[in-house]
Amino acid sequence: MIAQYPAFSEISADMRPVLHPMFKALAEGISEFTFANIYLFRRAHEYRVSALQDGLVAIFGRDRDVPFFMLPFGLPDEGILRELFAHCGAMKAVSGSQAEKLAVLGYRVSEDRDNFDYLYSRADLVNLTGRKFHKKKNLLNMFIRNNECRAEPLLEEYRDDALRILYEWNRRNSGASDFSAAREALEKMWPLQLCGGIFYIGEQPAAYCLGEELALGKSFVIHFEKAVLEPEFKGIYQFINQAFASILPEKYETLNREQDLGEPGLRQAKESYHPAGFVKKYRAWPR
Questions:
Q1: pLDDT tens digits for 39-55?
Q2: CATH code of residue 144
Q3: Exposed / middle / buried, residue 64 (Cβ in 10 Å: 0-12, 13-18, 19+)
Q4: CB 274 within 8 A of CB 124
Q5: Do 93 and 218 fall within a single domain?
Q6: pLDDT tens profile 160-200
Q7: 100 and 126, same structural domain?
Q8: Which is more confidently placed, 163 or 231?
Q9: Do 172 and 229 contact (CB within 8 A), yes or no?
């Protein structure tokens, strides 16, 4: 099913029974490292996989035509590692424990701040207590006062409504880069075991979010969050954040809202919710 290195295989749905349990066993909670994420963004990043020794799997990709590789399940022996760096040049989504080992082996390692995952306390998002959340709570209360709204689990019966939201969101955002992945996520949310919430204003579908659990079930990652923005819907994102956190089981200690990709506006928005921490990631290169 998965070619032996140095051969490669394209990512396909029939790899899920093999790769999904391996991703589920990862404790670090890196948002890229789920089967759904790798599968849905297989075209955007030109992902391919190879089987290494000892049951390890390498993921290869390209960002803006620059090759990279990732090793979610552990580092191979030094000979294979040198070959991977020679082939790709850089390793991406390096965990903290891997960064320490690579530094000892003589590789150059640096923090990849633009790709840090933002972690938020589920309880903080539900309660919004304290001065630091004062503005968020005011926007939430204003939205609830001005709108008749409800939240529902994003079951298959609501998929068409979620697709309506996505198409309208895409029209307003001039063909955003993750549209195709977001659409496929909705179309295949059951086989990929994604779940989320959908939010209505009156009878109008207004927003949805979709994700899955991470970090051995301690965290929930939001892969997609889309809303139809109208002037009278000011505060809708505050409503989504609070409402979805409220319906999540308490076993999820944190919500992972992924990275800001170095975009100033997105960074400001994510920091405004006062993250409880980050899932730090690193990049590595040969010296």
A1: 999 999 999 999 998 88
A2: 3.40.630.30
A3: exposed
A4: yes
A5: no
A6: 999 999 999 998 887 668 999 999 999 999 999 999 999 99
A7: no
A8: 163
A9: yes
Same domain, 93 and 121: no
pLDDT, one tens digit per residue, over 14-23 is 999 999 999 9
**Do both 197 and 121 map to the same domain?**
yes
Domain count, the chain: 2
146 and 245 inside one domain: yes
Q: What is the pTM of this model?
A: 0.94
Residue 40: closest CA among 178, 220, 152, 132: 178
Q: What is the pLDDT of residues 94-138, one digit of tens each?
A: 999 999 999 999 999 999 999 999 999 999 999 999 999 999 999
In this predicted structure, what is the pLDDT of residue 37? Answer: 98
Q: Which amino acid is at 42?
A: R
Domain span at 13? 9-116
- pLDDT over 90 (residue 28): yes
- C-alpha distances in angstroms, 269 versus 139, 202, 205, 259, 263? 14, 27, 24, 11, 10
Tokens of 235: 């505060």
Q: Are residues 132 and 248 in the same domain?
A: yes
Together in a domain, 125 and 252: yes
Q: What percentage of the chain's residues is helix, strand, coil (to nearest 5)?
A: 40, 25, 35
Contact residues for 119 (Cβ-Cβ < 8 A; gap 6+): 29, 219, 254, 255, 256, 257, 275, 276, 277, 278, 279
Final residue belonging to a domain, choices 86, 116, 146: 116
Pair 222, 210: CB distance under 8 Å: yes
φ and ψ of 124, to 5 deg: -60, -40
